[in-house]
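Bench notes, afternoon.
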Amino acid sequence: MLLKAKLYLKGEDVSTDYATAQRMFEKSVHQGNAYAMYSLAKMHLQGIAQYSDIRYAVHLLMEAAERGNQWAEYQLGKMYLYGQGVDKNYEMAVQLLTSAANKGNEYAQHLLDNYRPYMHSSSATVLASMRLLARLSQIIRDDAEKRDNNNRAIDRKLMRKIEQKKQAQGQKMG
């Protein structure tokens, strides 16, 4: 049932149907499935549930986090960190993000590593700065990769010319 709900939510192999996905997630939530709790909460937070309710989303995330879902811990930690849908609570945010990071959530670890120096800045400024730095690092990586590929092509051509000159002069190749 959970797999079908994800297919309807993402529109993979079937047309996107949020209402059907929501009903299926709700059935799984009543069975105590932590991933379904997280997914249904995300639908409410994104405004794609039939009746989006942030308080209900927070409740679902709390339940899923208590059951050990690292993605719920990460989402809830972000919400507490930035004060989105809940009051800002830095201690709770760090606790949830640390728990998610300990379970292998690299996004939570990245947020913990990069947010602490800026904890007194506004959340919008910090988020924008982090996105800007991530994009800048991607641009630099892409540029370095292009330069490496171009240098190899030039080096091969140059090597071929040198070998042709050596051969024309009767020098030993190699």
